[in-house]
Write a structure and sequence with these properties.
alpha/beta, two-stranded antiparallel sheet, about 20% strand
């Protein structure tokens, strides 16, 4: 999730992801220099302790993780600290925000080992290799199955459905100016309705009672009635912008596990997200950072990601868990947008969206 998400994406929101921030110490030194690799990321970063331990044993580096909030917040902080970076590797910039990081010189070139095994559709920046695709996921509206079944109401399937009177005051989404899934949802509507039509769509969505909150964590785990966190928090919105991979997380972390996922996906509302990692410009431990980027593309890590961050691997030979195939398959025809078009229009669209929806 964070895509990704984030998702990401969901495990962290449920409070179930392993805490890695304490791994290693930035003060550890050896005769060859620092033996700590500092990863800077969003709050949805998660990996199995055994997988991180294997990297540390094989490479000789310790891993320290610094989390900086939602993906949008993390990217903005990376831009602000580019001349004095917080770490060596940044993970979690996605295709909605990629140009902001590249245009501001956040990364230095490095082509990790295993790059040739990445699915071709996810490769970008091939001339300079400043970033490397790590995972992918679909930002989509999720729905609370019980809510709609109890009311004998069909859940929405498309963007058009969301503006129908039957779904008034049911949807919560994230702020497109600060949240990666919120921005992804905005871009999905721009891809669906075009430059001239997306604003009119959002006027109708606002008139139909859409609620906007700051982050994915707040939307999914506090406002959404279908998630485990939302149920505990008393969430009353049965529609939320999240990820196609959120339903399997609801199954995996339930005790006991239900026979079916309690949430579903409106497959006609999906936008394809890709997350990248890169070696930070000015990294104090560039060699360690390179080793960690190589590690992110190993089959071991790529197959560990799905049930930790609830995203799909980009490595062509990485296997996907059964739970993903059963409860959270990728959208067959998601909305997409050329990164160049996102770069050209993103800031203008977000400014217009903010004026239109938040004021």
């Amino acid at each position: 999730m964070n895509i990704t998400k984030k998702v990401t994406i969901l495990a962290v929101g449920l409070g179930l992801a392993g805490g890695l921030a304490g791994c290693g110490s930035s003060g550890e030194q050896s005769s060859g220099g620092t033996r700590t690799v500092t990863l800077v990321s969003h709050d949805s970063w998660a990996a199995s302790k055994s997988v991180i331990a294997a990297f540390e044993k094989e490479s000789g580096y310790r891993v320290r993780v610094l989390k900086n909030g939602d993906a949008g917040q993390a990217v903005n902080k990376a831009v602000l600290t580019k001349d004095n970076p917080q770490g060596d590797v940044f993970f979690g910039v996605d295709n909605t925000l990629l140009s902001r990081a590249l245009d501001n010189g956040v990364f230095q070139p490095y082509r990790p080992q295993g790059s040739d095994r990445i699915e071709s559709e996810y490769r970008v920046d091939q001339g300079k290799h400043r970033v490397t695709p790590i995972d992918t996921g679909d930002i989509c509206v999720n729905y609370d199955k019980e809510y709609f079944a109890d009311r004998e109401l069909d859940p929405p399937r498309t963007f058009d459905d969301l503006i129908e009177p039957a779904y008034r005051n049911l949807l919560v989404t994230e702020n497109a100016a600060s949240s990666s899934p919120g921005l992804g949802f905005l871009l999905g509507t721009a891809a669906e309705y075009g430059d001239d039509g997306w604003a009119d769509y959002w006027k109708k969505l606002k008139a139909n009672g859409v609620k906007v909150v700051d982050s994915w964590e707040q939307a999914y785990n506090e406002e959404f009635s279908g998630s485990a966190g939302g149920k505990k928090a008393g969430g009353d919105r049965p529609l939320v912008v999240s990820y196609a991979s959120s339903p399997p997380a609801e199954v995996v972390y339930a005790d006991p596990r239900p026979g079916t996922a309690p949430t579903g996906v409106a497959t006609g509302t999906c936008f394809r997200q890709v997350e990248y990692a890169g070696l930070l410009a000015g990294a104090r431990n560039a060699e360690g950072g390179k080793a960690f980027l190589d590690f992110l593309l190993t089959k071991r890590f790529q197959e560990d990601m799905p049930l930790n961050m609830f995203v799909y691997p980009v490595r062509e030979d990485a296997r996907v868990p059964r739970e993903f195939a059963e409860y959270g398959p990728q959208a067959e025809d998601p909305e997409t947008m050329d990164p160049a078009k996102i770069a050209e229009n993103r800031d203008r669209w977000v400014k217009s969206w903010t004026s239109l929806v938040l004021k």
